[in-house]
Amino acid sequence: MIVRARQWRAAEQGSAPYASREASVSLSSLSVADTVGWTATAVFVASYFFSRPAMLRGLQMLGAVLWIVFGVLIASKPVIASNVLVFAAAAWTLLRRPEHARLDK
What are phi and psi of 56, to 5 degrees? Predict the structure, then answer.
């Protein structure tokens, strides 16, 4: 709603490249970066619906990789760095051995 109002005002003032006063967004008009970003968002949200730790960590890692790609596409070092850390933490918790397995040896 806010974006649409801003786009309308910008178009009204003649400072935006919109063909009409009302901007519409279709799936075919999304950039590669937007597509990757929305996919990463969907994966991130989907991870909350899994209770198995391995599946949860796997989705967190997939989401982090998608966010890293998004960060590269938009040239955002903070997005890249934070998601490298998320990926590393998810991988470490996925690959570490359970406590009871260490006690047996």
Answer: -60, -50
What is the three-state SS of 15-43? Answer: CCCCCCCCCCCCHHHCCHHHHHHHHHHHH
Q: Which residues contact 78 (CB under 8 A, 6 or more apart)?
A: 71
The domain segmentation of the chain, as residue ranges, is 1-26, 31-103
How do residues 86-104 score in pLDDT, each as one tens digit?
A: 999 999 999 986 665 555 4
Tokens of 63: 């989401």
C-alpha 37/C-alpha 43 separation (Å) is 10
Answer for the pair 67, 31: CB distance below 8 angstroms, yes or no: no
For the chain, residues with pLDDT lower than 70 are 1-27, 97-105
